[in-house]
Specification:
mainly beta; 1 helix; 7-stranded antiparallel beta sheet; 9 strands
């Protein structure tokens, strides 16, 4: 995949995060952990910073078409978590655990909806895609009571 110039930038104590205008993610909806062979390429745009912590930074994204327009085939926003370098394995394991919980039928747990992808702008980091993104009429919230 060709990498276009980044348009969005955030700086954190654990590292910077950047995204292109139309951001690709391989494997959404795939059951396999092998990103190279699972086919589905999805595109996202309009990132909104949701929060950061010990393992990475999380952003919400809207589905986009490959050309950058809105993608009506995907419902709702997706959360993308970008690991810090030192927490790569933690974020990979987080996705694995969430997928195991989903396969086991555990209700009311966020889903890791694709296998970890390499973060395109810095070696040693990964990204995972999570769903759902819970919208709040008051924007970003730190309390479930505010949703």
């Amino acid at each position: 995949l060709a990498v276009e110039e980044p348009k969005y930038f955030w700086n954190f104590p654990n590292g910077g995060v950047q995204f292109e205008d139309t951001f690709p993610f391989l494997g959404i909806g795939s059951d396999t952990e092998n990103v190279e062979n699972n086919g589905q390429l999805s595109y996202f745009g309009d990132p909104v910073f949701l929060g950061s912590g010990g393992s990475g930074a999380v952003f919400s994204f809207s589905p986009k078409s490959a050309s950058g327009g809105s993608d009506s085939d995907m419902n709702g926003k997706v959360a993308i978590k970008v690991s810090w370098k030192r927490s790569r394995s933690t974020v990979e394991k987080e996705c694995q655990i969430l997928r195991t919980l989903e396969k086991s039928g555990v209700p009311y747990v966020e889903k890791c909806i694709g296998p970890p992808n390499e973060y395109r702008f810095e070696d040693g980091r990964v990204i995972i895609a999570l769903s759902p993104v819970v919208e709040s009429p008051r924007g970003i919230t730190t309390s479930i009571q505010d949703v």
